[in-house]
């Protein structure tokens, strides 16, 4: 029986749920079986490894998995050669590739005398402009100024995102930093300038 699948690689660690993404290409599988049973581990129906339950029936193993989706099952063979039915599949999605750096494409000013879109380095009189950009599809995009988060959203399936700033900008130059975090917890940074 497969009890847990654990990600022990930063930035996100802990027990995985069925279908969850991870950046750990060697998650730790742990389970229980009959004492000294041979545990065969299958990835998408193909045997990839064997291990043995200890004298208390516990076992652990860390298979090496390539990027992509893996449905893991296992069987246990006792000393008499009896083989258990395959376990229920547990799917883990390995993603060791950091997301593409997010891009702040433009801002939208909809107040005052200067309205319309503006780019990096241009002046706006909108203290709470909308910023648009692109990143990896479905990544969580966060905007920061001086280390303080000023907006967050989730990119769409096409990677596009829009954030209405939640902290008013003061007069003067501002440097906005964007981060994108994918489902496996990997983060990528980008920097864009904005004047007010």
Automatic annotation (TrEMBL):
InterPro entries: Big_13, Ig-like_fold. Coiled coil: none annotated. It holds the Pfam family Big_13. Residues 1-29 are annotated as: Disordered. It comes from the Bacteria. Residues 11-96, 113-188 form the Bacterial Ig-like domain. Residues 1-26 have a biased composition (Polar residues). NCBIfam families: Ca_tandemer (NF033510). This is Putative outer membrane adhesin like protein.
């Amino acid at each position: 029986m497969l009890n847990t699948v654990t990600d022990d690689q930063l930035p996100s660690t802990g027990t995985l749920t069925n279908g969850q993404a991870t950046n750990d290409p060697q998650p730790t599988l742990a389970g229980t079986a009959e004492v000294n049973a041979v545990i065969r581990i299958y990835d998408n129906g193909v045997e990839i490894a064997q291990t043995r339950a200890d004298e208390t029936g516990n076992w652990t193993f860390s298979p090496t998995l390539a990027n992509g989706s893996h449905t893991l099952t296992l069987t246990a063979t006792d000393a008499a050669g009896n083989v258990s039915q395959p376990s229920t599949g547990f799917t883990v999605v390995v993603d060791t590739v950091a997301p593409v750096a997010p891009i702040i494409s433009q801002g939208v000013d909809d107040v005052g005398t200067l309205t319309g879109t503006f780019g990096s380095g241009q002046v706006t009189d909108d203290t709470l402009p909308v910023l648009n950009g692109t990143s990896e599809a479905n990544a969580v995009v966060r905007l920061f100024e001086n280390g303080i988060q000023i907006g967050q959203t989730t990119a769409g399936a096409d990677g596009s995102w829009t954030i209405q700033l939640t902290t008013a900008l003061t007069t003067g130059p501002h440097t906005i930093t964007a981060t994108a975090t994918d489902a496996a917890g990997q983060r990528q940074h980008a920097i864009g300038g904005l004047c007010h």
